[in-house]
Amino acid sequence: MGSLPYVKWYRYETVDSTNNEARRLIRNGILTPPAVIIAEKQTAGRGRQGKTFYSPANTGIYMSIVMDFPQSANDAALLTVRASVAVSDAILEETGIETGIKWVNDLYLGTRKICGILTESVLFSQKRYAIIGIGINVSTENFPAELEQKAGSLGVEARRCIDSLPTTIFTHVLRIAEAGGNIMETYKKRSVVLGKDISYEREGVLQTGRAIDIDETGALIIDLGDGKCDRIQSGEISLKTWR
User: Fold this and answer.
1) pTM over 0.85
2) Residues 133 and 100 occupy one common structural domain
3) pLDDT tens-digit series, residues 27-72
4) Do 223 and 155 reside in the same domain of the chain?
5) Which of 3, 78, 92, 241 could form a disulfide with 9 if both were Cys (CB 3.0 to 4.6 A apart)?
């Protein structure tokens, strides 16, 4: 696995979570960004909203990229959006596989989730860092029962890229983060949500509507009918149908 000359790579056989390890390295004063933490296996991989990310040994990519936290509020708000596009770009470059993006941070192949992205921040010694956690099912075949109908992988053929893909991902994430600019059109073109009927919770109440747009801050715009719209910045949504 190659690494860019000015980037420190921290490689592990097993960690609880690469995002957790990134936090530890930062708080111990060891890590200077940009840096990458990568493991062959996670015992407690984390997803959004307290969910876990299944991370068996040697079948996936489990990595966290540490960067300086964006200075502008807009860049900070779009960090997950940009990371999603960057990872999608990297997968396409390495494997030729086109992935869709499920708002806000998951990549899909068909109707199955193959990648999750968890963006966090940590403050240490009056400096704020961004941690972008990325988990990709490359050739994972046997999933726990609760994931069997939802999770998928890039496929056995993609295993040839398991060593080179992390560097390509880092390169794309760094490029998009530094370039800034508006990538929302690309994000929306790859969306598997726009134009679909969805359900979600708002203050404990189940809501249903049609996803009609994603605004410049990354918020999802939902048509509730009767001339009413809703705007959500974060949260979990479910598609009623993938068609």
Assistant:
1) yes
2) yes
3) 999 999 999 999 999 999 998 877 889 999 999 999 999 999 988 8
4) no
5) 3
Task: List the domain range (segments joined by +) for residue 147.
Answer: 8-189
Contact 174, 103 (CB under 8 A): no
Laid out side by side, the sheet with 237-239 consists of 228-232, 220-225, 205-214, 197-202, 237-239
**Cα angle: 177, vertex 172, 142; to 5 degrees:** 120
Strand-strand pairing, 228-232 and 127-137: unpaired
For residues 78 and 142, membership in a common domain is answered with yes
100 near 190, Cβ under 8 Å? yes
Residues 6 or more apart whose CB falls under 8 angstroms from that of 163 comprise: 1
Residue 3 in any domain: the answer is no
pLDDT tens figures, 208-225: 999 999 999 999 999 999
- Let me know whether 105 and 211 are in one domain: no
